[in-house]
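Methods — Computational structure assignment.
A single polypeptide chain was analysed. Its primary sequence is given first, followed by the predicted tertiary structure written as structure tokens.
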Amino acid sequence: MNAADELVFHPLKKIEVIVRGERTGFVRDLLERSGATGYTLLRDVAGMGHHGFHEGKLLYNDQASVVMFIAVGSEAVIRRVAAGLKPIFEKQSGVMFISDTHVVRLEHFVGAGAAD
């Protein structure tokens, strides 16, 4: 048996959130309060969407930039995050994507009280 055969893939949920830079603190706090054990933050995201093309970063203005958060957790954690984000998307542009994913090191993505 080789090392690849010994890997265990643990199923979790992934959320990707794209918002204006001014919402960075809100999303970061929501992820932490919801039980996410960590996240990746990509700054200066650019792309085309429902509201047209968005530049990654406008000169000297991080608040007007577009950022993307990526977090992985149990379905319960990701549901709490999605519910907390819903009011933002009712009033402002932004998107969230939720998908199934797998991780190898489960202990990095599920907190100590993760039986939710």
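Note: Helices lie at 3-6, 24-34, 75-91.
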